[in-house]
Structures are given as C-alpha cells and as structure tokens.
Amino acid sequence: MQPNNQRYSEPEHFLISPESEPFLERLLFGRRHVVMALLVLITLVFMFGLTRIRLDSSIEKYIPLQHPFVQSYLKHKDDLKGGVASVRIAVAARNGSIFEASYLQTLNKITDDVFFIAGVDRSALQSLWTPNTRWTEVTEEGFQGGPVIPPDYDGSAASVETVRENVLKSGQVGRLVANDFGSSIIDVPLLAVNAETGEKLDYQQLSHLLEAQVRDRYQNEQIAIYITGVPKKLGDLMDGAVAIGYFFLAAMLMTTALLYWYSRCWRGTLVPVLASLIAVVWQLGALALLGFSIDLYSVLVPFLVFAIGISHAVQVINSIALHAGVGENSLWAARKAFRGLYVPGMLALLSDAMGFLTLLFIDIGVIQELAISASVGVAMIIITNLVLLPVVMSWVGISPRGVEHARRGAATIPALWRVLSGFADRRLALPVLIASLVLAVVGYQYSKGLKIGDLDPGAPELRADSRYNLDNDYMVEHFSTSSDILVVMVETPIEMCNSFKVMDVMDRFMWHMKNVPGVQSGVSLVSVSKLVTKAMNEGNIKWFALSRNQTILNTSVQRAPGSLLNGNCSMAPVVLYLNDHKAETLERVVAEVQQFKARFDDQVDDVFFGMRPDDIQSAIASGKLESVPVRFQLAAGNAGIEAATNEVIGDAQNRMLIFVYLVVFALCLLTFRSLPAVSCILIPLALTSILSQALMTWLGIGVKVATLPVIALGVGIGVDYGIYIYNRLEAMLIDGKNLREAYLETLCSTGKAVSFTGVTLAIGVATWIFSPIRFQADMGILLTFMFIWNMLGALILLPALTSILLRPEHIRQRHQRIHGEIPPAI
Amino acid sequence: MGFEMYSFRNHSDDRRCGRWGGSITSGALALLVAALWPVQSVQAGWTDPLDTPAETASLANQALVLDVARRGDNLVAVGAYGNILLSDKAGLQWQQASVPVRVTLTSVAFVDENHGWACGHDGVILATADGGASWLRQFDGFLANKAVVAAAEQQLADAEASLAELEDNGDDTTDAEALVESANFALDDARYDLQSGSTRPCLDIQFQDLNTGMAVGAYGSLFITHNGGQTWEEASSRINNPDRFHLNFVRAISANEWWLGGESGLLFRSSDAGEHWEAVESPYEGSLFDLNRAGDYRILAGLRGHLFRLDDSGEWQEIDHEGDQTFNASTSLDDGSLLLVGNGGALLHLGTDGSVQDEKTLAGSKSMAAVAVVNNGYLVAGEGGLVLVNPQGETTDARMMPVQESAHAAQ
User: Fold this and answer.
1) Residue A526 forms contact with B (CB below 8 Å)
2) What domain of life is recorded for the organism (chain A) (predicted)?
3) Which CATH number, 1.20.1640.10, 3.40.630.30, 3.30.720.120, 1.10.260.40, labels domain A17-51+243-412?
C-alpha cells in the first residue's frame, strides 16, 4: 500500500465508518481475479434467466385488486358475462347502406370466419346473421318474431327488403346496426381460455388473428372494418411494447456516442456501456428467475437502469481519468476513484432504490412490479457500476488520449463553469432564490388544476390518432352505446333479484342516475321487464312499467339476457353508459351511487343474502325483515375499474410523495448529518416536483397509473445530482477553499459529470416520447423534464442555497473534531 | 268506499340493529338464528312507491310521458316515476309538481283550471284542487282490490240467490249456474290479488264535471265517482266483460255520450254517465285504444293503425291510410278536425269529413301516447318525453324550467 493513501479519510459522511473503507477497497481490489470470476458467474446465471422472460397481457395486473370496487367485481366476475372480454367488429358499407346483397354476403362470411377463431364464445357470438338476433312484432294474433335474416333469405331484392324491415322491428338500430344503417356490428364475446390449447387466451395473438383474418382479408373499396374492445386494445398495446425495444437501441447508441465525445477513449466508453448493459441483464434475469413477467410498465425499467448505470459510470470514469491525469497507474486510479465515489454512489443508488420502493404504496400490480424491478435494477447497478466497472478499469485503464483529454479538461476552466460558480456567491444567489420562490409559487398555483385520471376520450393508453382510437371514434359516432360503462351490481337473496321490491329500487336507482350529468342511459333487468310487459300488452306504452304482480314480473324477465342477472338470480347488474371517463365524471357518478347506496342498502346481516325466497318471506312475516334485502355494489365495467384506480391513485399520490421525500431525507441526513446540507439537496428537488405538476396541468396529463410513478422516479433519480455535487463541494470546503472556489472546483470535476449525466438520462427517456403507447410517451415527457430540471436545480439552485444555509467554518470544525487533520477523499 | 289516506306499510319505526357475529352460512341454521335473534334489522331506505313522493328530476321532461291535458289555457303532463309536469299554453318550459307517489301515471283529466285527476299503475288515483301544483292520493290498487272483492262477493251472493230462486221455481238453471261459476272465479281472482298484493293499472281517467268521472284499466276494472273522487264505486259488473279484458280508454264526448273500449274489440256506450252501458258492435276484433270526434264523425282507433269512422247512420267505415302503427291518442283541433298520434312516430290528421288530410312519421320514430295543441303547432308526449312539433313537422325538445325559476313560479 502506498504511503500517501494514509492521508485520506472519507468526506464528511457517515454511512460507512472510516475504518471499514480500506477493508472494502482491499477486499475488492486485493482479490481482483476472484471478484471478477464471481461477477462473470453471476452474469451467466442471469443471462440464463433472460431466456425465461415472457410478456404478460393479463388485465388483472393493471387494476387495483384490493380496492373494494374491484373486489366486488371479482366476486361477480363470472356472472358479468361479456363485461370485459368482448370484441366488437363493425363492418361498414362504404357506399352507405348495409341493405345490399353483396354487403350481407360479406357480413355472413366474416361472421363465419370469426366463429371459427379460437377463443370466441360461439354461443354468444352475435351479428345480423346469427340466430340470436331476432325481430318481434305485435299483431292481432299476439307476438310474432323470427331471426332478422329470414330462413328463406336468397339475396334477392325482395329478401334484402325483408331484412331491412326485420332490422327495424328488431330494436337493434343503434346497437347492432348503426344509426345511419351504414354499418353493422359483429359482437364477439371471448372465453377466458383458448379451448383448443387449454391455455389462457393470448390477446396479442387474437388481435393479430383479427387483423389478418378480418381486416386484411375483407377491407376493400366496398367494405371498411373497425375493431374495438378491451382484448383488442391490449393486443395493440403489446405490439407497442415490442416497439420499445428499438427505442432502447436508439438510446443506447446515442449514449455511447455522447460518452465517447465526453471521454475521447474507447475503453472508457465501451466499459461503462457494457457495465450498464450487464446491469440490465442482471435486472431482467433476476426478475425472470423470480417469476416476474414483462408488462407495459416494466418494459421501461431497462431504460432507467441503463441510463442510471451510465450516469454513475460517468462519475467513475471521470474520476479515474482525473486520477490517471495526475500520474496514478490504472489500478490506483481505479482504487482512488472507487474510494472517492462508493459512498456518494451507493447513497445515490440507495436513494433511487428506496424512492422506487415507495411505489409499492400504490396497490396496482403493474406499479408494484415496476417498483420491485426498478429497485432491483438500481441495486444491481451498485455492483455492476461501482464494483465491476472500476475493477475492469483497473486492468484496462484509460487510454493515454483519454487521460490527456481529461487533464486538459481539468486544466482549463470553461467559461460556463465560471458563470455557474457565481451562483455560490450571495450577490447572484439571492436573485436565483427569489426566482425559484416565484417559480414555486406560480407552479404551485397552476398545479392546483392538476386532475386525477384520464382526461381524453377513447382508449387513453393509446394515442388519439392510433388505429384503435380511430376505430373507437367510429363506433361512438355511429352507434348509440357508449364505450364508457359503469356497472353497479345489485345483490339480493337467492332467486329474488326480480322480486318487486328489488326491481322497484333498481328502477328508482336507474332514474336517479339517469338525471346525474354524465350518465347517458342505463340498462338492467328492469329495462327488460318493462319492455316485455309492454310487449305482452300489445305494445301499449302505458304498460311500460314494473308490475306488482310477481307472476308477471317473473314472466317478463324469463328471457332476459344472461348478462343482466346471474345464474341463481341473486345478483343483477345495472349497466350505466357514461358520456366519458374523465375523472370528474367518474367522481360525480360514483358519489351519486354511494349516496344512493347509503340510503337504500339494507343494513342486514350477510346471512340473509344467502337465503332462499321462502326463508326470506318467513323472516318478513315474523318481522325480522321489513322487505327483501338489497344492496348496491360498485363497480365493474371499464369506468368502474377506472374509478377505483383513480381513487387508489388519489389516495396514494400524497402518501407516496411524502414517503419518497422522507426516504431521501433520511438517507441524506444519515450521510451528511446536517440539516442545512439536506435542505440544499432537497429544495431543488421539491421545486422540480412542483414544476412537473404544473407541466402536467399545462399539457393536460392527469395523475394516473402511468404518471404517478414518474414522481417517485424523478425524485429518486434527481437526488443523485445533488448528492454528488454536495459531497464534492463539502470536501472542497473542508480542504479550506471558500464557497465560490470550492464550487468552481466541484464544477470542474463532478459538475462536468453531472451535466453530462443529466443530458444522457434525458436522452434515454426522451426516446419514449415517440412510443405508440400514450402513457409511455407521457412518462417520457415528464421524466425528461424532471431530469433536466433536477440537473439545473443541482447546478444553480443548490450552490445558491449553500451560500445562504451553509457555514463552511462549521463544516471544517466538525470534520476536525471527528477526523483530525486527515483530509477527505477526493 | 270513502276517502281515506291509506298507508300501505308503516315505516316510521326504524330500529337500530346489532351486527351479527359468527359466520353461519347454512340456510336452515341461519333461519333459526334469525328466528331467535331479538333485534330487528334496519331497512329504512325503501318505501313503497305508493308511499314515496316523486323524485325531483332535472330530466323529467325526457322521461316517458303518457298523457297531456289542458287545465284552462295551460297544460299538464303525467308519466313515469310519478312525474307530473306543468306548463303554460306554449308548452315550451315545464316545471315539476309535487306528487305523493312515484308510480307510473298513465292518464290525466282536468275539468277547469284548478281541478284535475290523474291515474296510473297500482290503480292509483290522484286529485288536485290547485291547478296541479300539489296532489292528494284519493284511491289506490289496494283499496281497489278490497272494493273488487266486496263487489265480487256481492255478485256471487246475487248469483246464488237467483240460482236458488230458479231452482225453487223449477226453472232452467243452466245460465244461472254459469253465472255462479263465473262469479266464483271472479271472487277467487279478486281474493288472490288482494292477498298477493298485486294491483291493476289504471289506464285512463275522464271527468265530465267536478263530480262525475270514471277510471278504467287492466283486467276490466271500472270505477265511477259522483263526488269528485271522494268515493270510487266498483262498476265493472255493469259491462259484459266475462273474460276481464283490459279497458284501454274511457271517453266522454258529452255528458250523455260516454264511450269505453278495450281489448278484443270491447266497445260500450253509456248515455247516463256510466249507470248503464250498452255493448256496441265493434268493426274490428283487435284491441281498441281511442275514440274521439272529427267533425260529426266518431273516430275509433284500433291496433296496428286500424281507423274507423262512425256516421249518423250508425255504420262503421274503415278509413284507408298508409301506416300500420297503432294510434294511441288524439286531440281535436279548433276547426273540429282530429290529430292522432301513435307508435313509431305515427301522426295522422283527419279532416272534419273524416278523411285523411296528412300522414307522416315524426323524426326519431318514437312512440307517442298523447298530443295537445300549443301556440305554434302541437305538443306530443311519449317515449321521447315532451316534444314540440311545428306545422312543418320539425321537432324540438321541450325544456325543464331551471330550478330557481321553478321554485319562484311555484310560489
């Protein structure tokens, strides 16, 4: 060991005691070969893990499973037939009318083709050609009815005319047939499993099948095809997730180029890139071995891991080059870089990881998996970029050209640094602080308009001009059914979902809800009962009401679709069609339902809900009950699930923000043991948080599953800059420099790396902005903004704060008290 | 039967209940526990629709509306959810009246600006004396059931008495036995309804003056009042309707010309305000929905667009026209001609000579249950709520008065 190494202790931090430091360093660099072999072995294991990676398209991961709405939905999931998993294919006649023999023939062919696609619930498939699409008519003899396409249909003008008349009598206009008769729908309910393979239905594969066998085959000059439905949307999203791979490649190439420009040394470029890639391999491999799968959110984690890896690698390479510049050999340059950086590096990475872990507070599968995979990834970086990287560099070293570049860089002080160093001076600091305060206040005021949830119509996960959303626009425009559905499940005792009291309270509920702004219409067993009661009385609309006669009620719902009551008639859903799924709409509608529920839910023991009619009647007769018990359960349907998600997000929002700051605060305090120091690091972060919320408001991006994690990621990653800068600045102050000098020195070494890091990270996430998936693009915008602002905050606001909050002499005194005359590691 | 405020079920005693412990799931055991458990459950929420006031609704004008009547110059409309809506003669802006029930109302009749009656499902009959601003329940299906049972018992007694008399005289008893049998059936049915709590919808109500009015409805129910609805007399035995077909309409063309019609071509006429009814042979075997006047003709509307006119000679002639939708209602225009509306947006104008002047389908093809003349065109009501139609046949939705304005207007 060289004697001059004894001179150094660690800088003013306490995460690891000074005594352990040489031990760690000796352990890693003393047995370099063993360490290296171990790391190669681990890499091989995780590479094997890579082969196990699979893409997951299950819907459950995207919804808050613990939320009471979702719990109720899951309880009745099997009874809510076609509630989620159904695809709608609109077949449009480009000439404007579906009442043409050629159109009907094509529709017939498509219906047949769809019938044979694996996973389609064939018994429930519906189009004009399926026998379950019927017309009815009241005549002197009573009811008449039949399939809309008559059994003797032969394509002649006369039989096409019959079809037209039947369609008008079928009540399907607006539902199966477009309001303008320009298209008709094939409603394709799906099974949960692929009957042929016995495996869970693969939506991506189904989506491809629909594209190939329906759209590609039948769309032409006469026919246009539009496909919507949750499974189709998920399929499209999965396709979009694959495109993310190319963005990763692009980000990697750009980073490599930048890194070379920065270091002018191929060894110093490729080793960090490789080390960061290995971190990605470890992260993905570890997760695959843990049994996790890749989804639309966790597919972004490799970007983060790579970008964070690069940013820390740059610090290491920068430090090695500087040490090599003053004449150290490869080994000692690497050792000293390790000694100077492992504490702030580990602290920064731990803050990242802990910040990510606060995402666990959001009770949504994809976010929790994102939290775990991102923290695992960041933890991996501690090994790959703080250990593997310097160990490898201790062999390969920086090329003489790179060393020369670093030396020249260190010798000349760029004008920018001189300007920036002025912010550590009180004269310039004050205007900066005032400007920041103004920004914070304005940003805070503006961010009050921040909304929770999705703010745009259509499928918010995809872009407004995506194929899916264009198809969805067509459906909304031409058919009467909204794509935003809130389902309220009405629970009753067994066989009593159509008893008069239940039906009456449902009727009352539906009318009440119909008057709530945002609710278009509603459908339930009550609608069927009224319709049939009317029809049974010669179509006289004065009979469009619920009958108090139980026999009539029973008859009226005898042929109700299975989606409107469950098998033993203990649950009947009320389907509410909403104008949109904006958060305020959902909140208003849900609040009205809750109020109604509070008033009309019968507070009786669960036991009554398991009873049969005779028992209920005797309970009523004996005075135990006043009437048939009933309760309203929120919520199913896409709007119901989204309302639950919004509630979870709204609850988690502040809690998560508080926790992520608490964690970062605790870690910084533990390390630097000084409140002014912690304030200098955290205040710039807080400003970025406020401004990013203002940006979200401005761009019309709501707080949602996709954007909430960004807050944690932004704070977690953003704190790195502050830690590196402050760590260095403090060391320089202890070294006896005044604040401005110390900051200039900091800028020349760490500052260069920090600014480079900010740009690299921003480039990595900025590529997401081009993702076909809307929320990935939103995340990209926000993260790019946060990384740049955090960098600026650390370079400008942090020194300004130190000039006000720090007392350099206090720092020096304390250091002396603890470490005597030993200077800090640089 | 006298006027009485009838409370179907008392909900005033809401008792708190303790939550049950344990997790007993077996039905029988649960019932046992339920039987032994001393505390009653709280179920304050639901009240019978007959005991529940209609909800104030901002979209009441868009809900199902089933009848419109004139009250003086102004208009009143009734429909689903107990909605009663009031407007001036323009029919453009409506406000909701306070109504003590929330059952679907099917018919409304006013004799002057202030006095009116409305009837509907559950056999409910409401009355107002303040132009429709507030309503009082006069009668309902449960009272009607009791009245029907009483009448059926009386009828059975009468039938048995006359049978006994015939037997005593040794006359042919075939008819009398049949009468007893049918009276027995009627009584059974009436008792079943009373017990099971099912009710008969009232489908039409009509008053000729402040005192005399009639309400008809499902299963041949016919009630007559001579005291403004304070008592309603069960009168279904006055018409020959052994199968108890629905009575769809009752119409007073004048005090001595009442008509009554219903399912299966049932058609009756009374010239003494309902004391006696004579069967009129119907020109059509299907259901009849409306009878009104066009010029000197009587116009009869049946299922699937069948229209007939009755001239002085007493002959029915079918009116030839295009559509085949059922006409549900009609209103006389100032010139004595008749405007009919029906299902699927069907609208037909009959001249005073009983000939078709105009026939069209309104946009939207919604079924209509009522029509009234307003300033500029007419007001139709039905599935699509309240809709104004101008002379060109263009439609606009009527509006609800903003709440503040409504409150102000109500004062």
Assistant:
1) no
2) Bacteria
3) 1.20.1640.10
